[in-house]
Amino acid sequence: MNAILKLACAVVVSLVIAGCATTGGAPVNYSAGVMVDTAGMTLYTYDRDTVGSGKSVCNLKCAVAWPPFKAAPDASPAGEFTIITRDDGSKQWAHKGWPLYYWVKDQKPGDRTGDGWNKVWHVIKQ
Question: What DSSP string runs through 64-107?
Fold first, then answer.
């Protein structure tokens, strides 16, 4: 591998690590002022959830359209990021007490087609 390619790879890895580290806890970044996962997929909150309740009310059919942003079983909360336990026992990231979700119709990084959906789904702005 030539020196320029090695340097470019090192810079990319450093940026990814720095992006994760700055949020503390959940593996997220910000893109164009909106919270995304490390793959660049937009994350959303749902107004019908109760902030700080530790629960998601988006289950079954809702969770098919709005998949939860799952946390690994060994993930640890940090800063503004906590972990809730879903009805099915799986773990989900929450930000400032709001469970985080994807929108099934967002197909590529940068898509934000769920923002404002039914006036209850919202992107998280930086």
Answer: HHS-B-B--TT---BTTEEEEE-TTS-EEEEETTEE-B--TT--
